[in-house]
Structures are given as C-alpha cells and as structure tokens.
Request: fold
Amino acid sequence: MSNQQQEVYETIKWNGWGDYGVEMKLHEKNQFWARHVDGKPIKNLMNFIYNEIKGGKGPIEMPPPTPSITLEAAISMLSKPNLNESFLKELGSALAADQIRTDGLSRITHICGKNYRDLWRVRRGLVERAPDAVVLPNNHSDCVKLVRLAQTHNVVLIPFGGGTNVTGGVECNPFEQKRMNVSVDMRRMNRMIKIDKKSNLATFETGVSGPELDDQLFRYGFMLGHDPDSYTYSTLGGWIGARGSGAMSNQYGDIEQMVVSMKVVTPTGVVETPLTSRVCGVDLNGLFIGSEGAFGIVTEATVKLEPIPEERIYEGYLFPSFEVAFAAFQECNAKGIKPCTLRLYDEDDFRMSTAMSTSSHGFLEKLIGKGFKAFLKNQRGWNLHKVSLVIVGFEGTKKRAAFQRAETAEVFKRHGGLGVGRKAGESWQEKKYDLPYIRDFALGNSFWADVFETSVLYADAIPCWLAVKAAVRKVWEEHGQHGWIGCHTAHQYKFGCCLYFTFASSQGDENDLKVFLEIKTKAMEAMLKYRGNLSHHHGIGYEHVPWMTRYMGPGAMNILFDLKKKVDPKNICNPGKLLPSLPKEGEGEDALAQRQAKELMFDKMGIPGAVKAHL
Amino acid sequence: MSNQQQEVYETIKWNGWGDYGVEMKLHEKNQFWARHVDGKPIKNLMNFIYNEIKGGKGPIEMPPPTPSITLEAAISMLSKPNLNESFLKELGSALAADQIRTDGLSRITHICGKNYRDLWRVRRGLVERAPDAVVLPNNHSDCVKLVRLAQTHNVVLIPFGGGTNVTGGVECNPFEQKRMNVSVDMRRMNRMIKIDKKSNLATFETGVSGPELDDQLFRYGFMLGHDPDSYTYSTLGGWIGARGSGAMSNQYGDIEQMVVSMKVVTPTGVVETPLTSRVCGVDLNGLFIGSEGAFGIVTEATVKLEPIPEERIYEGYLFPSFEVAFAAFQECNAKGIKPCTLRLYDEDDFRMSTAMSTSSHGFLEKLIGKGFKAFLKNQRGWNLHKVSLVIVGFEGTKKRAAFQRAETAEVFKRHGGLGVGRKAGESWQEKKYDLPYIRDFALGNSFWADVFETSVLYADAIPCWLAVKAAVRKVWEEHGQHGWIGCHTAHQYKFGCCLYFTFASSQGDENDLKVFLEIKTKAMEAMLKYRGNLSHHHGIGYEHVPWMTRYMGPGAMNILFDLKKKVDPKNICNPGKLLPSLPKEGEGEDALAQRQAKELMFDKMGIPGAVKAHL
Reply:
C-alpha cells in the first residue's frame, strides 16, 4: 500500500450521508421546492412540511438554514489523542506507517455512525469522544497482529465498516477515556479471496462494501442478494456485526442465512466456524452474527451466492388501509406465497413518499392527483386518509416470477388491492437509497428526521404499529411540539415481520435531543410491550444496550457475559456495545445494577455537557 | 399421575424398533421370501442377499436365525444400580413415587439408542452400563427440581426422548461409573402449552412425539412439517438435541428453522431464548439446538406452524445415473426450483428398494421387469447398472404444487429423467418409516445393517459419494468379507446437501463390531476429506465426539468448553456426548490430549470385554 492511496473515508462526508457533492438542496428559484440528489425538483415538500411536520401551524415558509460547523472547525475541536506509545511503537513495526493514522481528518471521520443523534452532535461540535487513532488493516494477518498488540497493551478496538451504523455501534464508549481507543477501518479489506462456483459460495474479506462485493461476483454470474438501504457504503462486516437484512430478504435471506462460515480474531485466539452445507452439533455463527464486534473482529466470511435472476418485476398496489393490506399479506403467508420483496407503507409513510416525489409527471404524484382520488373515494369507497401503498417484487426465472406475480395478484385483488403498475416499483427502486439524504436536508433546514425498527410476531403487529405511533405522538404533544411519523412493514417471516418507523419534527433548541431520546425510549417501551424486539436489522450497538438484559433474560445474559469474559478478558473489543458492563470481581448484585444503570446513560448522550457531568 | 399409567417405554421393543408385535418375518411358506411389517411378501429378498450382500458367493439359502437374548435374561444381567440415596430421598419428596424407577425393565429400556452397535450389544447381553434409575418428569417444574437436586448431589442426567437415537446419544458414559446415572424419560411431557394461530406458533413440552405433536395441531389446521424416518417415536426434544431434519425439510426447514425459542434447564439456571420473529443481537438457539443435552434439558420449545397443505404430490423419476440426476438437481437449485422433497437414490440404493418391494404387482417390481429394462437399454441407451431413482414431492396450494411440478419436470426431462409416476411416490411414502424393521430382521437372520449420513458442499458431493462407498468396500475386502452399500441424497441447500449411506453385511463372529467400527471410522475419514460434516441430522452423540475437535477447530472448541464449564460446572449433563472431556485444573496439553484420546474409545465400544479392560 502506498501513502498516495485515497482511503474511502476521505471521500465520504464527515458530517452526513454519502459522497461529497451529492446532496438534496433548496431549489434555487422556487422557495417552496427542493432539488433531490438526482437534481429533480420536489414540488410538494413545503405542503408536507407545513401539514405533516408543523401540524398546519405557523407560517407557510421554508425555515432558516441550520448549517453544520465546518470540517476544519470540528478537527480543531478534537481533544488531544490519548496515545499508548508502546502499543503504537510495536504496531509501527508490525504494520506500514500509512496504516496507522492519528490525524484529525482520520479521527473525525470515525467518530460515530450516521443517525440523527450522531449527526446532530458532530454538526454542533460535540466531538469530544473521537477515537485516538485509526488503523487500516490490509488483511486477516494484520488484524491478528493488531488484536494481539491491543490485548498486550490494553487498547480498545472498535471495528469500523461503512460507518453507516445508526445505533451507536462505532462510537467510543465515554467510560473508556483512560485507555487508548482505536477505530479499525476495515475498508481496505475488500477482496474476494475465493469462489466455489459449483457450491455457490465465495469467501470475502469483511471490509468489502455492497457494490464492491457484487461487482466481484457479477463477472461469475452471481450476486449476494443483500440490499439494505445502506448498500452503497455499508460492508459485509457491518452487516454481520449488526445482523443486517436487505430489501429482498424474503427470497435471499437475512445476513444469517447468507453467511456460512466466518473467521473471527478474538483477543484469545482465532475462531473459525466450520464451512459446511448445514451445521452439525452446535452453531457458533449465531454468537458472532449480531455481536457488534464485542467478541472480536470478523475478518473473513464465506457467503452463499445467488444466480443473477433472469427476471425482476417490482410493482405497486394501493390498499384501502394498512390493516386490509396486512390481512392480504397474511393470506400470502398462509399459502406459502413469498415474493422476493413485500413492503407495505402505512397512510403516513405513503403521504411522505408522494410528497417526496420528484418527477413533474411522476407516478406517485398521479396517485394523489384529483381524478384518481375521486375514483378511489367514489368508485371504491375508500377513506383517502387511510390509503396505503404496497411495493411487491418478484425475482427468478421468467416463469417463476410470472407465476408468483399471478398468485400474489389473485390474493391482493380479492382483498381489495388495486394494482398501480410497475412505475411504482421502479420509483421505489430508484429512490430506495436516498432517505438519508432527505434526513441531512432536514438537519440543514431546521428539521430533523430519524428511523428505528423492530420485529414483531403477527399477532402483535397491528397493535404494535398503533402503539408505537401513539407513543411517539404523545411525546411531541407533551412537549407542545408537532411531528410526523410513518411506518412500513417488510421482511416477512412465517410468524412475524419487521415494522420500520420513520419520523421527523422541527428543530427547537439544545433540548431537541432530550425530546428525541424520550421518543426513542417511549417507542422502545411500546415495542417491548407488544413483544417487539430491540431492532430488526440496525443492530444493538450502544443505543439498545439498556434493554438487552430485559430482552435476553438473565439466564441468556449470564451466558453472554461469560462468553465475553472468555474471549475478551480485558474488554478491549468494542466495549459498551451489545452488552452492559460485566460484573466485576466481588461486586455485589446491587452495586453491579447501579453501575450498569449509570453506564447505560442513553438519555445523556448528545445533551451538551451531560456526559462530562455524568462520568 | 397414577401408578396405573402405562409408560411409552413399556410398549416399545427393548431390543429393536417399534411396538411389540410389529416386525418383518420370514415367510412361513417360502424360505426365500419374507413378510414385511405390513404382512405383504417380499419376494426378491434372497436374490438381493445373495447378489449384493454375499457378493454372489456361498450357498443360495436363507441363513440361520440369530436371535436376541430374552428381556428377562437381559434384566437378570444388569449390574446392581449405583443409587445415590440422599439424592433419591430428596427427589422422592419433590416428585411422586411413580416418577422414579429403578426396576430392571425401566433400566434396560433406557440403556441405549437404536443403531446397529446398540442393538448388537443388547441382543448379546452386553448390558453392563444401563442407567441406575429412570426419572419421569411431568412438566418443566419437575425438571427444574430434578436438575437442582442432581447438581447438589452430583448425579448424571441423560435426557431420553423417543430412544431412537443412532449416535450413542442416550447411553451412559463408561467413565461415569462412580456417579449415579439417571435417564430422564421426557415422554410424559407431551402437551401443547399454547398456540398462537395468528402468528403460526405453538409451544410444546419437548417429550411430545411426532404423531402426538401433529395430532394436537391438526385440530387447528396446522402441522409442524417435520418428518424424519423416526417420526412415529422420536420427540421434539430429541429433534432439538440431535439437530434433526425431516423428509420435507426443503420446504418446511430443518429443526433449527422450526424452533423459535426454548426453555432450557441448566444446572446453573433456566435459560429462555427470546420469542421473536427474528433474533436481534446474538442468537443462543444455535448453542442448544444440536447440544445433545450437554448443557441442560430443553423442557419447552415454541415452534413455527405450517398450514396443512391443500395438495400433496409425490412422484418418481428414473435417471441414467446418479451423476446425471445430480446435475438436474443442480439446475433446479440454480433456478430456485425447490420441491418440498427431493431425493436421489443411487444405483445401489435403488436396487435395494426394488428388492424390498412387497406388492406382487408392485410398482417398483415393474421397473425391474424385463420389458421395462429392455426399453431403458435399447430405446434410451441406459446402462442398467447405473439407473438411479428420484422421489420428488410438492406440497402447498393446488396451483403452487402444479406449477412447481411443471417447472421441475421441465428440468428433469431435459436432463434425461424419465417420469415413472405417482406410484413411486406413494410407495416411498408408504415405506419411509420401515427401514429400521428391515435392519432388525437382518440382525435376527445372520446379517446386519446400519446407516450414517453427512452433509457436503456441492463441489464435493460426487467425489465424497464415491470415496465413502469405496472406503467401506475396502474394509470388507481387507477382511475378506462382502457387503452392500447404497447412498441417497436429500435435504438440498443452496450450497450443499445431505448424503445418506445405508450398508449391510453378514454377521460373522465377535469381531463383527470391530469391522463395523472400522467402517465407520474409514467412512468418516473419507467424508471429512471432502469437507463433509460429522452428521446431517443424526447428531453428535457419543460416536462422533472423536472428530469434534477436528471438525470445530480449536478456537470454537475452547468456546464450547468454556460454555460447558459455565452452565454445567460439575459435568452432570449427558457427559461424554457432544464434547470430549474438558481440560482439568492444571492439566497440561499433552496430558489432556492423552486423556481425551483414552476416553474417546469409540473403537472399543461393543467389543466384548474391551471397555472394562480399557477403563
């Protein structure tokens, strides 16, 4: 590796989503419009903001810009790195000089993930906990050296993939200021190591991003079939660490169905899980998938491959309500009808989608045109406030896709669904990676937006959907604020599905994050009440740790504590993520509970000064 | 529970498969025929025995009977039970008197599983290591009491489900003679605890057998969809313990796709895994599924339910060879064509199936009729020695089943497959639970038969299939013996499948088991050479422990050792199964390796006197 090589993090915004230069902007001529990342105008933006986010109150006008501080300013505000000189000296002998970075740009670009809480903080200069250094391993062997030296010198390691994490998985634990914290940027490790075309398997280094991975497979006629919203930037290792899932998971599986075996570098040795067509005995993959790097660094993974499908059909349906469409989904489930993609946007999410439509004669706009609305109301007798959108996708041979499409259509139509054609599907495909840009636009213009998701059993899906939205709205109400929240369901299992919430409100003052964290907390309580889990595919990270003991139960938690102690006795692997603090020698139950409660200070992160005062 | 209740084990043969009275017998009129369990004559038996098992050598005659010792004799040969009186006293206060059995019948019926090695031993009176007592818990709470007392009094617990295990999973560890050994018969725990019809989930006690489980679901319109050959007798807990799989796994999943959450009673506490539509964070189910009771007793499990299919079609195809049919399977796999059941019997397995055909105008017999053979040879140009049979099944809605059938037929026919109709499918369905009865018949008539399976990646499937058969035949050759071995493949995954071997030979002398164990060893080496695993669905038990460290690798093994120490510090949970002996305090690596090697005395089990001499 030469010093001239440009690292991925140098090309991606330090304080927002995507490459520099790609962003949603205010329209230069019409103050009520914006331009999407593709340059096309969004004409209905102001209406949506006024009616949905501001609750029809206040002036109908674009609010003032709320710019981020500059990169230079952020770098100047970084604390002096806490460098473990003996570690760095030995590491310097083991790796090349350009693999070890302690400069401001490297540190600031690895400070956190990309959710609202992350960006709110860095945009305002709350950059006190950047990693002390960034290390760039070139391969598995580099990782072995790095972990060994970190173990010897008691240095904290935080694996860093695409940096797209939204649950606090890549930030430094505020309680780890005494030890040096190293962000391990895996993105140089982006190679396919081998491919077994007969067995449909390939082994990759885990720093490979979505496009890099598929590009290496396409030439052999294969793909992975993993398509999360973060696809462009996120990495195989990140998908494994957060137990990711993509938009076509119904057909190609979640990440745990894709990963067949792994190489994990733990502080106490390398663990390789067997490469086999089906596990025999017990399965250790489940301990590392979703582990957030808390047990070590996953350096290589063998994944199953899918042939590139002959046919891809994505199309839309409208339903009179979320509940009606949900019932249609249930019938498909009972009949074994399993489209590759099956997404249902509730009335609020649907209105957001149409508001964000860009094309002047766009498909989604047509759906909210007067003529069509009159048809739905008068001919169909629908309540227009309840109309929900379904995006359904079929992939495979031409025959399979056609058959699945026909059997799905039969069920959908019998439940009152109205096919609205392939434009809806294309429109979804086109825009599916763009939501984070809208979030950044909001942050820059006096608004904010964020997402969270859960996974529920079918019996709880409708009550959970209602309860979460009600809980979030109640927080706004109690604070005299307005906001918008929508939900879609995707990732259908035989016994349950994912509910994914998107929500937005106006920026106020320094207490914004306090309200936001209250929303997250109340929403989580609502989800748990309906047996929802902590996250469907965004992971546990830092933000969901407060609920881990409750979710897992004490018996399971003890096993995980023990595993952590065994493989990572010094707790150098991404401490504070996945699990709360481990019991200390001789520490009583009460003392432990108190200490854990103190450390799980989710409600203090991002409140200026709160962390410092709390430590 | 009353004392009058008949326990399941009282109704099942102590020294063979199935209920008393159901068995395959010699035909009373024709010395070359037998009667199958359904009473129908098997006319081709002698030909098969002569040509295939005896290698066309020796007299064409039915060999002499080789009867088992009687139940009474076996009971009289049991050693005096090693009873831990203080344990029994406390247990007697916690449970009802009829839940604790130390009588000879209870002990002899829980001595081992049902493979050839097991039955060979008990039929000859090698009954020295029966459990000291049998305990019959009525519910989860009984199991909690039992495990707590066993932990206090250092008593070994061996969970016992249907007793159909074929890998030594339920026998006492010969190195555990100093401690009392209790077989925990779970079969009273056969209730459905709750059903969630909306979410397609039901919670069962794990002692429930296949028919008991489905009977409780049928009334709600559901089934589990798990259909192993042992279905009639094996239990949910056994399927979990051995990581089982059934004949329709392609559609309904292996047991790990069916079990959503579990309650596990370990010596250090109860562990419940979360009930969720998809795991978040890390997944502990994989640690208990396939664990052979080595971490505790799985008392309850929530499983996903399948609607009872509208249509079920099972039919047969002939292919000119195993390799050609395998190529057709590969094309189906690449195209996403996934029949519920997809089984391919190689030429040897096919000949065995036809030889065992019962109906006088039976379907399979017709396939080996002269006219049909001539057609295959002359019209199709097939080598009749290579003809292989495929059984393919489709389940679901009528439309889905018809579509899948058509797309499968298209691929099969293009590869030269010849449809032979639904009779082939019905014939397989009818006979699928009967193989163990043939094995028992062999044991009673101077022959023996057994099975083992592995799971391979597709790239290795054909070489592994050839290598295993060659390895087994070589052992026979080296011992101047003859035998028959056939193979079928089933359970298709995206990247590999199961290879299932059935083999038989003549009984000789007391060294039979030595030859058999050599076969198992050589076959395992051949499987491992081609990256096959230790077992596809029969589990690890006792017999596969010698290869566990090699299969799992040292890193993974250390994690399992640690987990075992954590949840079962006294090693009371089915010791000697799943894992080799744990390192002892202060024990050096060499000493450990030597001790483990001594304890992994797979090659001595069943050799009269060898165990005793070895301990």
Summary: The longest strand of chain A covers residues 447-457. The domain at 192-307 of chain A is CATH 3.30.465.10 (Uridine Diphospho-n-acetylenolpyruvylglucosamine Reductase; domain 3). The mean pLDDT of chain A is 93. The two ends of chain A are 40 Å apart (CA to CA).
